[in-house]
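step=encode ok
step=design start
structure_in=
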């Protein structure tokens, strides 16, 4: 079941600049002639793929929020509910699903991962960590949770993408914190190292609660204080 509460597509959350910068790192695993974006939202990553030279770009989402701009007129879009299994009856060189899964109830996660894996052998995936700020977050999990679901589909998960883009501030920090890649490899799936739980330092600038409540501000101040104290302790140890 997908959360149907209205979702506000804010430009500071879904920027074309961030997607273009981010897709440069994904392109290193190509070349890609075709791409599917599941949960495409406003289509920023679809546009980034097209601008990068991917000629066959598709996107899906539960409703059409993709604008009719010059780039996206050259792309394909279908309304699909990611919480239910779906099949476009074709495969893609690259599948992406970025900061989508946290909006689906946990009982729908296997359907989502199954649909992603059905459409290609390479998936770039990111989803909100526990307590990450955002609208309508109902199923925030660490990457190792999603890794287990990909393993069940015969995919091996590799944690190298986020470290390549880690310091690129043109890219929104939630992608730099959460993204990993999954590749079809049934013989090795499940035996690879577990993806570690990591919080990007730039995420400390955001409260855990999107509403700006006192509780959210207090949580932010507390985390900044703990981070500062840890930095001071490490500095002191280095001088000893």
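sequence_out=
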């Amino acid at each position: 079941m997908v959360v149907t509460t209205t979702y506000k597509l804010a430009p500071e959350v879904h920027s074309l600049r961030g997607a273009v910068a981010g897709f440069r790192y994904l392109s290193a695993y190509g070349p890609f002639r075709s791409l599917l974006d599941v949960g495409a939202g406003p289509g920023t990553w679809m546009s980034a793929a097209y601008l990068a030279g991917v000629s066959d770009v598709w996107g899906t989402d539960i409703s059409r929020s993709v604008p009719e701009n010059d780039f996206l007129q050259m792309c394909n879009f279908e309304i699909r509910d990611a919480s239910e299994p779906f099949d476009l009856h074709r495969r893609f060189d690259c599948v992406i699903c970025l900061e989508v899964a946290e909006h689906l109830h946990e009982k729908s996660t296997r359907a989502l991962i199954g649909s992603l894996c059905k459409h290609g052998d390479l998936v770039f995936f990111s989803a909100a960590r526990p307590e990450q700020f955002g609208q309508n977050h109902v199923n925030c999990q660490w990457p190792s949770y999603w890794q287990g679901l990909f393993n069940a589909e015969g995919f091996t998960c590799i944690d190298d993408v986020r470290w390549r883009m880690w310091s690129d501030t043109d890219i929104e920090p939630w992608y730099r914190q959460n993204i990993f890649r999954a590749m079809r490899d049934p013989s090795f799936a499940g035996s690879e190292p577990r993806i570690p739980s990591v919080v990007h330092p730039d995420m400390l600038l955001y409260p855990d609660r999107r509403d700006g409540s006192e509780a959210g501000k207090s949580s932010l101040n507390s985390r900044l204080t703990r981070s500062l104290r840890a930095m001071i302790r490490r500095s002191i140890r280095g001088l000893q």
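step=design ok
step=annotate ok -> The first strand starts at residue 34 and ends at 38.
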